[in-house]
Structure formats: C-alpha cells, structure tokens
Amino acid sequence: MPAPASTDDFLAIVEKSRLMALDELDGYRLRAAADPQPPKQVADWMVKDGVLTAFQAELLLAGKSRPFFIGPYKVLSRIGNGSMGVVYLCEHVDMCRRVAVKVLQERRAKDEVAFQRFLREARAAAALNHPNVVHALDLGNEGNVHYLTMEYIDGVSLKDLVRKEGPLPARRLADYLRQAALGVQHAHEVGLVHRDIKPSNIMIDRDGVVKVLDLGLALFADAEEELTRGARLGNIAYAAPEQVQDSHTVDARADIYSLGATFYFAATGRHPTPGVGISNDTPPPRANDKGDFTRLMSILQRMTAPEPANRYQTAAKVVTEMVMWVPPAPPMPSALNSVADPPMAEPVFDETPPPAVVRDDLAFETPPLRNGPAVRVPKRAAKQKRPASKADTPKPTTSKPATSHPPTSEPATNPGWLYRWRWPVVFSAAALVGLLLALVTR
Q1: Residue 196 designated active-site
Q2: So what's the pLDDT on residue 313?
C-alpha cells in the first residue's frame, strides 16, 4: 500500500492495522476535521497521546498496516536485527506483559537447516534457568511466521554502553564480569557452549544485573548432528583461535576466551587482535585507575591466552578471581525491607494490687502477672496448704520429747494442767512443809 496522501487515507490504514479501537479512532477523525492537518501531524498527536509508538507511526506513514501482531503479542518497536531474524519489543494483548520476540526471517524459515538451527536456539535457551541468562518463555508460529518469545531486558548492551560512556572503570567491570561468568558457567554445567559471546550479547539492566543472550550458535555437548555448519561465527575478533580453525570441536574454554576479549573491549574501547589475545596489546593504565586496571588486565590476559591450556579452565574460576578481588555488592533493599521496624517498647506492669472485691462472701483479688492475663484467685483458697506428697511426709523417728529441742522464750501452744497450776502448788507445798516443821519442834 502506498504512503497515505491525506489524513483520511492515514486513518484508514490505522483502522486496518487494528492498533486502535474504533471509538478512539473516531475521536481523531473529529479532531482532524476541526483542525485539518497532514498525516504526519495526526500521527504525532497519536504518539504524544500514547496510543501509538514512534515505530508504529513510522510504519503506518509508510503505508504498512501489517504485521503489528505476532500471535498474542502486539509489536511496539524493533530492538535488534541479526542474520537469523529480527527481535521486536512486544506486549501481550491480554496480560500487558512486555517481552522480546525473535522472528525468524521468512526466507530462513523455508531453509530446513536454518529452521532447525532456530529450533536449536530455542532448545538451548529453554535448557537454562539462571538470573544471569536471558530466559526463553515460549515458541510458536502463526502461519509462516515462526517466533521465539524471551525475557525482555530493560537496559543496554555492553557494546552500546561503551560507545556512550567510553571505557568503563575496572571495578565496575569486575562486577559485570563476575555476573557474566556465572551465567556462562551455568550454560557449561548443562552441557552448552555459547560460541558467540561478544559485547552486543552482554546486556545490563537498570539494576546493574548482567544477562547473557543470543544462543543462536550454541553447541550442545551431546549433539548427534551439527546444525551450525556453515554458520557465521559472529565477530571474529572475539572468537578463540581454536574456534576460528574448527568451531565444532571447541569446549568451554573457547567461551572463556570470548568473555575475556569482550571485557577487554569494555575496559579499553579497543577490539582485541584476532587469534592473538591481548598479551601484546595492553594499553597503558589510566592515572586514576592504575592499580585496579593493572589487576583486571592480568586476569583478562590469562582468559585470552592463545593456548586453551594456559587459560582459566572453567568460568567458575573466573568468578572466584573476581570475588577475591572485588566482593559482590550487597543486594538492593526491596520495598518490603526498606522501612525499619519500630523499636519495641518495654512492657509496663502495675505492681499495686487492686482493691478486693466481695462476692458471695468470698474476697477475690487479681495479682499482677508478668507473662499472662490477670487471674482472680480466692483468698481462702490461696491460704490453704497444698496436699502433702510422699516427699513431704515426715519419716517416723524415735527422737526425745519436745524438751530436747532448743528452749524458746514462749510456752508451748497447749500447756498441761501442772504448768497452769504451778504457783498454787508451790505455795501449798511450802505451807505444808512449814506446818510439819512446827509439829516436830513441839
């Protein structure tokens, strides 16, 4: 369809694209009738109002009304382009979730080898589940259109970041390298060799999380047939020497070389010399980053050694080097733990006993308790002695009477009759003795 020559032609293309509801489109018809404008101005209105993206408006102004939908996803913009297909930023029509959708080129879909390679990429992505690797979500087709749905990374590639900011500080790169090596190690653990690690395949999101992506050239260790023969190796500057010679016999150490070459570019802004590494191509350290830069270069030199036996043998060893040098930053506080809990106040207990309450001739009181609610206990019951247990029962003894106990200043609780009548008896006995003495002396 040719580019729209009038506003009515443009609105007709928009209606055919199904990007807007009819009642919403009628509002722009009335607005354009009241204020006649060329199609470009009407498209600008829609972009400003947020009903179209700039990418959609550009295609509509070119007379293209299809395709703006891939399966259940609405195309918002184009975010990548490669030899196998195009990557679009899309939004699920019902769930409003944004994803990255890689669409296999139509001419590639007719090529059986290319189509099987596309399926191999989907299988490779589905085999991985790690926070530093882009997740595959879905694989589908609509007619002749085959697509792979992946996690959308709201960020920037390492390549674009260096182009924008220039060479990055060594300690910042050390953190990025640690995360990338973690993702690569996970791929190696499931028997996958990436074979296409380069700056454009390292993404950093807005939170500083690194994601490794694009497994189109991935090689499975247990593959029975090779679907990557004749495939382009990507940028040869980041490929290991043995990969340039024969990409079908490489192992995990080829990815370690590519990872070191990628971060050499991020640290210096230079592309490494193909097949040589960076041993003889180290720039002078920067004045404000001398010590860290030198340490980073020594690690990258070992990663890009021409001989595989002279490199780090696993990506896990690279992670260890980074952690020993620059410990990982603490996790960012989430919305749940960003606000500290208020300090707990010490409990206050009233030790003053409350007044007694008279009820049914029994007085109750509520003694203060420190670890529970107040319990009303009858006073009479409180004075009762607990039943004696066997442990409390005194053993029978043959001890002497109470007189053997230490004397006390108070009389016994129940004195006998002799104690009560002691004084009259004493006087009577004295009188009787005196009487006897008088009779004897006569």
Answers
A1: yes
A2: 95
